[in-house]
Here is the input.
Amino acid sequence: MRKLYYYSKSDLSFKAIGGARLSLMIASLVLLSSLVTMLSGYLGADLFGLKSLRADSMSRENSVLKAQLSSLNRRLDSFQLTMKSLGSSDDQLRTSVNLPAIPAETRMVAVGGVAENTDYGVSADANNLIASATKTLDALGREASLQENSYTDILQKYKSNQQLFAHIPAIDPIRGGIISDGFGMRFHPILHMRLMHEGIDLVADVGTHVHATGDGVVSYVGQRGGYGNVVEIDNGFGFSTVFGHLEKALVREGQKVKRGQVIALSGDTGLSTGPHLHYEVIKNGVHVNPTAYFFNGREYNEAGFYSELASK
Here is the structure.
């Protein structure tokens, strides 16, 4: 067993601690430690200030967390304002593609929701901050989902509209053509009686290029009574167009054509008083005034839609 030594001032030398004296010192240390533990346990004393240090640390930590939660709530409020702005833009976009705006009640249901009184096991202030952030996040999630679905609808409608716009008979069948006889009731120049004129007549020399007025598929090529030689195009979306008194057709039945493409040469066939083109637009089985579909009067004609060659 190793010995313990102490320095004796009287003898000016180191002396070994005897067994009895060593035992007494150990016993005293054990007793002192036990007393400290007992006092701390029974009296709740924080003899070394450890509890105070922990309390201060937790207080600082809580302050930081509450500050961060407050900042998070402010940012979420800002995001909500952004979502409201997107909702306003969404209504404008839906109107531009001919979709009805989302009703205010639907948006309110998406943004609203029942607040849950959840106890997160923290202070009341922190609990309120967490609850507010959670509620706002839930609302933003529902609103973002509604907005995403709306944008999908807008994109699909836009694509559908692009196809519709390409098929609408929107240009003059003869570039710069002059209308000699309009749509509606008229006194027939040959039959000498009032009859419905179901199209328009455009002045054109024999052999003038006749253009498809919208994308479509040629549905008929041939003779048709007083119309003479005829080309008819199924433009889709309920539209069809008829071109009469032709000298020659340059397309065949079943052929796809594009707006502006040359489909025939004008002539003087059928019941006609002279060279011209008779042009009709039929919408859902009803004859309509073709000029109603000319974009902005004649300005659309200058947009480069005319092609001088027909696909054979």
About this structure: The two ends are 117 Å apart (CA to CA). Helices lie at 19-43, 50-96, 104-111, 124-167. The first helix runs from residue 19 to 43.
